[in-house]
Amino acid sequence: LLGMSNVLSSILNSHHKIFAATLSPIMYNLGIIMGALVFEPLVGIVWGLGLGVAFGAFMHFAIQLWPVARLGFKFSWDLDFKFEGVKDVIRLATPRMIGLAIAQADMFVDVILGSFLPVGSIALLNYANRLQTMPVGIFGMAIATACFPVFVQKSVKKDWQGFNQVLFKNLKYVLFFTIPTTVAMVLMRVEIIRILFGQSGKLSWFETRSVAFALSLYAISIFAQSTVYILSRAFYAVQDTKTPVVASLISVGLNSLLSFILVITVQHFSMLALSYSIASLVNMTLLFVMLHHKLGGFKINSFLQSLLAILSSSLVMGLAIWAMRYGLQNFLDLSRVRDLAIEISICSLVGVGIYFVSMSALGKNEMGNFLNSFKKGKKC
After folding, report:
1. What pLDDT score was predicted for residue 377?
2. 3-class SS string, the chain
3. Residue 213, CB half-sphere, CA atoms under 13 Å: how many?
4. Which whole-number Å values give the CA distances from 12 to 16, 149, 308, in the listed order?
5. Which residue, 239, 290, 349, 363, has most beta carbons within 10 Å?
6. Within its chain, how far is the Cα of 282 from the centroid?
7. CA distance 64 to 15
């Protein structure tokens, strides 16, 4: 189902109809969350999460059917391997398929290492992993999906200056969203886990704190995981699908090595999250350096200025959230779900407001630019 849905996404992207294609990974993640919150209490963790994934995949597919149908697309059972472009697709897709196989092997290694840990460790790790993939899907995958057709357009025209502008504009968008998300997620990690899993009795207090710690270790690489999607699409646009596979192979090897060392020495499932984050940072760095070399260099002064503003504003936001958390604890009973929700909501709203004000004070209007890019006639 996801395979067919990705074909629909490609069709929509090629026609610059990005809304449904951008929304589809969000619907997929919402389906997974629904599995954890709605289905799991009814049918258990295995069937619950399985149904959540299936429902998310269905929503990923269904939301794109109508936009694709409006373009005149119809499904056909004809297979014509002599059709123009099929050989190119196979040639370019093969390295990508190898890369996906490597990623699956990486997950398998984590499961094997998890078997040496206390029973239930992998299930606890999955709680944290599912939560951290949500911002990656919403920001990284969605923005990468939206900008890919423009990458291709610039590449075909050999407009490398325009290509670089699109690249760094979208990298700024990704960092603008993911860095403050990381800060908020790390600061409110325990509250997030408690309100989603702890209050229903699924997790003990010790397990809640352990999952929260793993979530914070995953969260530090959310920006890197999201950036990898942008950088990979840049390589795909210049018909280079091999370089991302090489970078992925190196990072997966590093992840496996670090996972083995840390799990054996520390004996805690959160070390799998730490090794994954380190490997993601390495993957991002490798892709950036390789793309810099391939395109003959970058001019990054403006990008660095925006990055500094994002980091500074995220720090101010983090201090505000930290102060609000400790202030609200004197007025709220955090053993109750309602009060937990109030704390998270107030801290999030205040934090977001301060972040935007800080960015504006520094002369950066990334949010306005991002929203303008979705106006009719605008492209990524």
Report:
1. 45
2. CHHHHHHHHHHHHHCCCHHHHHHHHHHHHHHHHHHHHHHHHHHCHHHHHHHHHHHHHHHHHHHHHHHHHHCCCCCCCCCCCCCCCHHHHHHHHHHHHHHHHHHHHHHHHHHHHHCCCCCCHHHHHHHHHHHHHHHHHHHHHHHHHHHHHHHHHHHHCCCHHHHHHHHHHHHHHHHHHHHHHHHHHHHCHHHHHHHHHHCCCCCCHHHHHHHHHHHHHHHCCHHHHHHHHHHHHHHHHCCCCHHHHHHHHHHHHHHHHHHHHHHHHHCCCHHHHHHHHHHHHHHHHHHHHHHHHHCCCCCCHHHHHHHHHHHHHHHHHHHHHHHHHHHHCCCCCCCCHHHHHHHHHHHHHHHHHHHHHHHHHCCCCHHHHHHHCCCCCCCC
3. 11
4. 6, 10, 35
5. 290
6. 16
7. 13
Give the rounded distance of the alpha carbon of 350 from its chain centre: 24
Judge whether 220 and 183 are in contact, CB under 8 Å: no
Q: What is the pLDDT of residue 376?
A: 47
Alpha-carbon gap, residue 222 to 178, rounded angstroms:
6
Locate the domains of the chain by residue range: 1-76, 79-297
Chunked in runs of 10, what are the mean pLDDT values of the chain (380 residues)? 78 72 78 75 73 85 84 72 69 73 78 81 87 88 83 86 89 93 93 78 82 94 94 89 90 91 88 93 94 83 88 94 87 78 90 91 74 56
Q: How far apart are CA 146 and CA 374, in angstroms?
A: 10
